[in-house]
Specification:
- The complex is a heterodimer of chains A (533) and B (231).
- Chain A has 533 residues and is an alpha/beta fold.
- Chain A contains 14 helices and 28 strands.
- In chain A, the strands form seven sheets. In chain A, strands 15-14-19-18-16-17 form a six-stranded antiparallel beta sheet.
- In chain A, helix 13 (447-461) packs antiparallel against helix 14.
- Chain B folds into two domains: 2-107, Roll (Ubiquitin-like (UB roll)), CATH 3.10.20.30; 110-223, Fumarate Reductase Iron-sulfur Protein, Chain B, domain 2.
- In chain B, helix 5 packs across helix 8 (212-223).
- In chain B, strand 3 and strand 4 (74-77) form a beta hairpin.
- Chain B has 231 residues and is of the alpha+beta class.
- The chains are: A alpha/beta (533), B alpha+beta (231).
- At the A-B interface, helix 4 and helix 10 of A face helix 1, helix 2, helix 3 and helix 5 of B.
Chain lengths: 533, 231
C-alpha cells in the first residue's frame, strides 16, 4: 500500500514529516516546490497558549476563543485537540529551528483578533515563510533517506473514487509530470492538502494563483461531501495591488493599528467606539462587516483607513519591518507617516471537504487537511489559527495512517497523454463564474441577490462547458445554495434579511452532488465528549 | 501607452523562436500582470500557431520566487518589475539562462534542490539555538535562482553551489550540533566557500533584499573559521 500527499504547503509537509518521523514512506506531489506554496504568504503568526507573556493564558481559553470566534459552528472535539496540541506544535517547530521572535530569551507572543490574551507566536510578519523554510529543510532530511519521495513539478489530475458495498473508496491518484507530460498512477491512500478555493475568485483573493480549487471541485463531482461552503472570510484589511488583494496582516492592529473613517470632517475610530473592549481586534467577520456598515449606513465617507502611525518605532523595527517595506514598495506610501486606505478582501475559505476530527472524508482512504478541508474554524476563522490548523490537520491525517503496512512509492507510468494542466489563469468561464459568485457571496447577503446569482449560474450551466468547468460550476452552486438556504446570520455569513443568529441553524451544512443535482443537508454539531471540558 | 513586448519562446521539443506582442496599457502594471493579461486576453495569438505563454508564478507579490526570468537583460521576478521601471516602451523577456528551459519562460531549477541535499541542508538533531536575526534573515531566501543567474562563478553541475545553497546553511550551521557542523562545514567549504569569487553580484540583485554578504560572513565564520559572530 502506498501513501500519496497532494500539496507541499504546511499541511502537506506536516503530514509528510509526521509519517517520515515514524519511518513511514510517502510520495509528496506538488506542481511547484514548497517555496512557492501559499503557506509562505501567511504573515501574522500561530496561536498557542504557551503563556509566555505572563497573562495566565490556558489552552481552555484558546479553545473557548476559537469556538466563539467560529460562532459555535466548529466541532468542539476537533478544536479541543487543536488547541491542546498547539503548545507542543510550537515546541516541535522550535526544534526544527524556526527563529520565532523572542523577548528575554522566550518566544514572544502578540495580540491577535478575537483573543484577549497575547497568544500568537510570530516571526515579524513573515511567519509563514520562516516556518516553511525550516519545514522544507526538515523534510529534505527524509528525502535524502528515501522516506519522502518528492514529485515536484507534478500535478494531480485525477483521484480515483469508486463505490464498493455502498461506501466510497479512494483508489489512489493519477498525476502528470508537467515538464514531460508523462502520466503516472499511484494507488493507495491519499492525503489531500491542496489549499483553498482561490481560483473561484481569480484576482479577488489574497491567495496564490495555483490554488485553483480544481481538485476539490473534481472530488465534489465524485460524491465527496463539502461542508459549510457558504462561509468565506473577508479579511478586513486588504488593498488592491499587483493583480490581487494584498493582505495587510492583522499583526498591524495587534501592535496598535486602528481603523478610521471620515465622518463630519473628522476621523471616527469606529471599532474602538463600537467595541470598547476589543476595539480593532474583534474577529475578522465583525470588523469586515463594520467596515461595510460605516461605508454604507453611517453617513460616512466610502473610504476606510488603517492608521499605523501610532505604532512605536522599535515595534516597526523589530516586529513589522517587512510589512512596512511591502507597503512602501507596493503602495508607494510609508505607513509610519500616513494611513493606508484598505477594504475587505477574500482571504480564507472556512468551508471545504467535509472531514471528521481524524481528517477522514466520506471515502475510505481519502483524507483532507489544511485549507482544502472544513475543520476547526466554524463560521469564521481566528487569525493565527490557519497555520496551526494546517500543521495539526496534516499531523492528524498522517496519524490515521500510522498503523498501515506502507511501501515506498513506486508510481506506475500509464502514458504520456497527460492532458491539460491547470495554469491558474482565468479564462472566460472563470471570469463569468467569479462575477456571479462575487455578486451573491459578498460580506452582506440577501435572498434576492443570492437567488439572482443562482439564476445566472443556471444560464451559465446551459453553455457548452467542459468537464472541469462543469465541476467548478457545481461547487460554486453549492456555495451559493449553502448561503441561500442558511436563513440566519452567523460568522462570515451575514444576511440583511435574516440579521440574527438562529440556533436552529447551529448545524454544519453538508453539500453532496449526485446525478447533476446538489443536495444540501444539515448535520448536528457534536457535543464536547465527556472528560474533554 | 503602447509597448512592444518580445518574448524568447521555446516549444517543448526545443525549437526556439521570438514572438513580439503589441501591448497597450494606460496604467502601470507588473510584468506578471502583463503576462497574465496576454494569456487571458489571448494576445499571444499573433499567428495561427501561437499558444499561451508558459511561465511559472504563484504569489504575485515577491514572496515565492516562482516567476524569476530575465527582463531587458536583468534577472528579476516578473512580479517585482513594472512597466514604468524601464526606459522606453520596448521590453524583452527571456527565461533564466543557467537552467534547462522546459518551455517558453519555464526553467527546471531542480538542481538547486539537489545541491541542498548534497550539502546536507537539514538538522540531524533538534535545534540547539534560536539563532536570532541571522536565522530569520537567512530563512527569507526565496530559492528563485536569480543570484545564481548573475554569479560569475556558478554553473549547474560544477562544484560551486552558489548562494541559494549558502542561505539555508547560514541558519542551519548556527543550529546544528557539533558533530553535524563538523561534517557540513567540510561540504560548505568545498561547495561554497572555495568557489565564491566574492563578486557580490548576488547581494545587489536578491529580490528579497537579503544582505547576502552579511549572511556569508556569518556562515564563513562558523564553517571555515570556527567561531560564532555575536550578531
Amino acid at each position: 500500500m502506498y501513501i500519496s500527499i497532494i500539496g507541499a504547503g504546511l499541511a502537506g509537509l506536516s503530514a509528510a514529516l509526521t509519517l517520515a518521523e515514524r519511518g513511514i514512506p510517502c510520495a509528496l506531489i506538488s506542481s511547484q516546490g514548497s517555496e512557492r506554496a501559499q503557506s509562505v504568504l501567511a504573515e501574522g503568526g500561530i496561536n498557542a497558549a504557551l503563556d509566555n507573556m505572563g497573562e495566565d493564558d490556558t489552552t481552555a481559553e484558546h479553545f473557548a476563543d476559537t469556538m466563539k470566534g467560529g460562532a459555535d459552528l466548529a466541532d468542539p472535539n476537533a478544536v479541543k485537540g487543536l488547541t491542546d496540541a498547539a503548545p507542543d506544535i510550537i515546541r516541535r517547530l522550535e526544534g526544527y529551528g524556526v527563529p520565532f521572535h523572542r523577548e528575554n530569551g522566550r518566544i514572544a507572543q502578540r495580540n491577535f483578533g478575537g483573543q484577549k490574551k497575547k497568544r500568537t507566536v510570530f516571526a515579524k510578519s513573515s511567519t509563514g515563510k520562516i516556518v516553511m523554510s525550516a519545514l522544507t529543510d526538515e523534510v529534505r532530511k527524509y528525502e535524502a533517506m528515501g522516506l519522502v519521495k518528492r514529485f515536484c513539478h507534478h500535478e494531480a489530475v485525477d483521484i480515483d473514487i469508486a463505490e464498493r458495498d455502498g461506501r466510497l473508496v479512494c483508489g489512489g491518484v493519477t498525476f502528470i509530470d508537467i515538464y514531460t507530460g508523462r502520466k503516472y498512477h499511484l494507488d493507495g491512500r491519499v492525503i489531500l492538502a491542496s489549499g483553498g478555493l482561490n481560483g473561484f475568485f481569480p484576482g479577488h483573493t489574497t491567495g496564490t494563483v495555483p490554488n485553483t480549487g480544481r481538485l476539490t471541485a473534481l472530488l465534489f463531482s465524485k460524491g465527496i461531501e463539502i461542508a459549510d461552503p457558504e462561509f468565506i472570510q473577508y479579511h478586513p484589511t486588504t488593498v488592491s495591488a499587483c493583480g490581487k488583494r494584498l493582505l495587510i496582516s492583522e499583526a498591524a492592529r495587534g501592535e496598535g493599528g486602528r481603523l478610521f473613517v471620515m465622518r463630519g470632517g473628522e476621523r471616527w475610530y469606529f471599532m474602538r467606539d463600537k467595541y470598547p473592549e476589543m476595539g480593532d481586534l474583534m474577529p475578522r467577520d465583525v470588523v469586515s462587516r463594520e467596515i461595510w456598515n460605516v461605508t454604507h449606513n453611517d453617513g460616512c465617507g466610502d473610504e476606510v483607513y488603517l492608521d499605523l502611525t501610532v505604532i512605536p518605532a522599535d515595534t516597526w523595527q523589530n516586529k513589522l519591518s517587512d510589512m512596512r517595506e511591502e507597503i512602501r514598495y507596493q503602495l508607494g506610501i510609508d505607513p509610519v507617516n500616513e494611513p493606508v486606505k484598505i477594504s475587505p478582501g477574500i482571504h480564507f475559505f472556512m468551508g471545504g471537504i467535509c472531514v471528521d476530527k481524524c481528517h477522514r472524508t466520506n471515502a475510505d482512504g481519502l483524507y483532507a487537511a489544511g485549507e482544502c478541508a472544513c475543520q476547526y474554524h466554524g463560521a469564521n476563522r481566528l487569525g493565527g489559527n490557519s497555520m496551526l490548523g494546517a500543521l495539526y490537520g496534516g499531523l492528524c491525517a498522517a496519524d490515521g495512517l500510522a498503523g498501515e503496512d506502507v511501501l515506498p512509492p513506486e508510481p506506475l507510468e500509464t502514458g504520456s497523454d497527460g492532458g491539460e494542466v491547470t495554469t491558474g489563469f482565468p479564462d472566460g468561464f472563470d471570469g463569468k463564474l467569479c462575477d456571479i459568485l462575487l455578486s451573491g457571496l459578498g460580506i452582506v447577503r440577501d435572498e434576492k441577490t443570492m437567488q439572482a446569482a443562482v439564476d445566472r449560474l443556471g444560464v451559465l450551466e446551459r453553455e457548452d462547458l467542459d468537464d472541469t468547468q462543469r465541476q467548478r460550476l457545481y461547487l460554486g452552486k453549492a456555495m451559493l445554495m449553502g448561503a441561500l438556504l442558511r436563513k440566519e446570520s452567523r460568522g462570515a455569513h451575514f444576511r440583511s434579511d435574516y440579521p440574527e443568529r438562529d440556533e436552529n441553524y447551529r448545524k454544519m451544512t453538508v453539500a453532496k452532488y449526485k446525478d447533476g443535482g446538489i443536495d444540501i443537508t444539515y448535520r448536528d454539531i457534536p457535543e464536547l465528549e465527556k472528560g474533554e471540558a | 501607452m503602447e509597448y512592444t513586448i518580445t518574448i524568447a519562446r521555446q516549444r517543448p521539443g526545443g525549437e526556439k523562436y521570438r514572438q513580439t506582442i503589441n501591448y497597450e496599457s494606460d496604467t502601470d502594471k507588473s510584468i506578471a500582470m502583463v503576462l497574465t493579461e496576454i494569456n487571458s486576453r489571448k494576445l499571444y495569438m499573433t499567428d495561427k500557431q501561437a499558444t499561451p505563454i508558459k511561465w511559472e508564478c504563484s504569489c504575485l507579490q515577491k514572496k515565492c520566487g516562482a516567476c524569476a526570468m530575465v527582463i531587458n537583460g536583468r534577472p528579476c521576478l516578473a512580479c517585482d518589475r513594472r512597466l514604468s521601471q524601464w526606459c522606453g516602451n520596448v521590453i524583452e523577456i527571456k527565461p533564466l539562462g543557467k537552467f534547462p528551459v522546459i518551455e517558453d519562460l519555464v526553467v527546471d531549477r531542480s538542481v538547486m534542490q539537489e545541491e541542498l541535499k548534497a550539502v546536507k541542508a537539514w538538522l540531524d538533531s533538534s535545534s540547539r539555538a534560536d539563532g536570532g536575526e541571522v536565522c530569520y534573515e537567512a530563512s527569507r531566501c526565496l530559492q528563485c535562482g536569480i543570484c545564481l543567474e548573475v554569479c560569475p562563478n556558478f554553473a549547474p553541475g560544477d562544484s560551486f553551489f552558489g548562494m541559494s545553497a549558502a542561505m539555508p546553511l547560514t541558519r542551519l550551521l548556527r543550529q546544528m550540533d557539533d558533530a553535524q557542523r563538523a561534517e557540513v562545514s567540510k561540504l560548505y567549504s568545498r561547495h561554497i566557500y572555495e568557489g565564491c569569487g566574492k563578486s557580490l553580484a548576488c547581494r545587489d540583485i536578491c529580490p528579497a533584499g537579503i544582505d547576502i554578504e552579511d549572511m556569508l560572513i556569518n556562515s564563513n565564520a562558523l564553517a571555515v573559521w570556527k567561531r560564532i559572530r555575536k550578531k
